[in-house]
Amino acid sequence: MNTKFVSDLIESIGDPILLSLILLLVVFSMTFKKEIASKLFKTKSTNSPKPRDISHLKNHNVFTTLRRIKYEVANMKFYTHKKYDSTKTKMCEDFTVTKSDICAKYMNEFLEYGIPQMSRDRLKKTILDLQVTMHEAYILEIKKLWQSKDIPDEDSEYVIHLFEKFRYDVVNSFEHRVTAIFASSNYKDNFVLTLAVFEMWAMGIDLLPRDMQTTFENLNGKFKDINYER
Q1: Rounded to whole angstroms, how far apart are CA atoms 101 and 63?
Q2: By C-alpha distance, which of 97, 91, 211, 96 is closest to 163?
Q3: Total-model pTM
Q4: Which neighbouring-strand residues pair with 84?
Q5: For the segment 53-78, what is each residue's pLDDT rounded down to a tens digit?
Q6: Where are the domains of the chain?
């Protein structure tokens, strides 16, 4: 350190007591600089936000939405030639309950997949694959149910095809939105990514009663005389 600078600094301070305190502070800081830096870093780490637990998403409103839409559809009534069609009404309710229960099952299982440890790309692929799996699973289940009611396979496939036609824009947007979510830098970790996907699913599920109603209102009366309730 420049001797003249130190001499000038001492003269400028003047007060010997203040000078002593300053010198003690400088010596203390130089001696314990590592400990001080370590303490400051530790405090910063302690105050940083903890990663959120994926299991908290088990309480997401996507699950309450899946339950709610079953009750909404259960209150619908369908008619053929202006007469109440109990078969068509019950088929719609069963279709909705099957789809809702299958989706809830797979979404809950998805939260047990070890999401926090996944890479971003693997999580994206898992979600896209899950959407296909849920779709295939509920179609298989509703076909089995309708087979047990003596509804021919071609008639079951016709109803499913009609539903998917009205549902196409929603399902197609799911894949586009997943791609957009994972391409955005705003979603920093796997919790936030999964939360965004759950929000998207909940929005799509909200539209399900509309698509069910449109589907079954467009059916003809071929199911009217089936003893569906037996």
Answers
A1: 10
A2: 211
A3: 0.75
A4: 79
A5: 888 999 999 999 999 999 999 999 99
A6: 3-47, 54-217
